[in-house]
Design goal:
307 residues, alpha+beta, 2 domains, 29% helix, 21% strand
Length: 307
């Protein structure tokens, strides 16, 4: 009987070939290992109260997808962190990809499964609310230290944040990601007035992200109700609220307003003077022209609209 290379691999795997064989099989189809990826508040003054009132007036990812029970789906990881083991070329349904998954499972990571993100097929393990949870850290340590033939094939393993498409909001017409497609060159920049995130860049859990997303979208709804063109932007660290859209003609090369231009932006900055964090102003320390310590509230600032 003549078997294809993939069939020979599959047969050897099912017969319980040694770890050395499995490792060679796995690495034969691996194209690349991905090398990834404090706020102080001040009591609100009148300007802060006005801006806060404006914002708070009422103050599935694909898995294995084959007919093999060994490569069956583990369920969606949308909104969850996972651990990336391998990045494969091809599709989740290809025999070579399935062979890699079987090899990974047979050589120490039986919980591994496939996840498709865009055009990428990933071998991953685990679904975690937070990248710093005890379960996540234990699994990452385990796969990094896994030795096969005196090699550690998953030393480059790392935590993978929730998929970007899982971070899209419930109101696409107000999602900043869609502004350029809708408004063209008039939507190159916007004014950031708030961000919901963990202060100081701390660990962000999936539950945190859901809370931040809701807060940002609620703020946008309130602003829209009041007649302000507001937008939200969700990413893996939090959710941003911005107001207004404007073009390059309103700016110079340094994200500042050109003399005599950008009156609409100036008006927005007067209405929303501060860049808040979780709905509160942020106190920034600096040094004045005389070299003396100075404090000020972080002002709202211009950001580029994402493509």
């Amino acid at each position: 009987m003549n078997l294809t290379k993939i069939e020979q691999i599959d047969l050897a795997t099912r017969r319980g070939g040694g770890k050395s064989h499995h490792l060679r099989v796995c690495l034969a189809f691996v194209f690349v290992l991905l090398g990834v990826a404090s706020c102080q508040t001040k009591p609100a003054n009148e300007d802060v109260k006005a801006q806060t009132k404006e914002m708070f007036p009422g103050s599935k990812s694909a898995a294995a997808g084959s007919d093999s029970e060994e490569a069956s789906a583990e369920g969606t990881t949308e909104g969850k962190w996972t651990i990336l083991l391998l990045h494969l070329k091809g599709t989740a349904q290809e025999a070579a990809t399935q062979a890699v998954l079987r090899s990974v499972r047979a050589t120490g990571v039986p919980e591994a499964y496939l996840e498709t993100r865009g055009e990428n097929v990933l071998v991953v393990v685990g679904k975690y609310e937070s990248p710093t949870s005890s379960d996540a850290k234990a699994m990452l340590k385990r796969v990094k230290e896994l030795q096969i033939d005196n090699q550690r094939p998953y030393m480059a393993a790392h935590m993978l944040p929730p998929e970007a498409r899982a971070l899209k909001g419930s109101m696409p017409e107000w999602d900043l990601r869609n502004a350029r497609a809708k408004y063209g060159k008039n939507a190159e920049y916007t004014l950031q007035i708030n961000i919901y995130t963990v202060p100081g860049g701390g660990s962000v859990s999936a539950a945190d992200l859901r809370q931040f997303q809701k807060a940002a979208e609620d703020a946008v709804k309130a602003l829209r109700k009041d007649g302000t063109d507001a937008f939200y932007y969700h990413d893996q660290t939090g959710s941003t609220v911005t107001v207004g859209l404007f073009s390059q003609d309103d700016l110079d090369g340094g994200f500042s307003l050109k003399p005599g231009a950008g009156q609409a932006v100036r008006d927005l900055q007067k209405k929303f003077p501060y860049a808040m964090v979780n709905g509160r102003t942020v106190k920034e320390r600096s040094v004045d022209a005389q070299g003396k310590p100075a404090e000020s509230l972080r002002p709202s600032f211009v950001v580029r609209v994402p493509n």
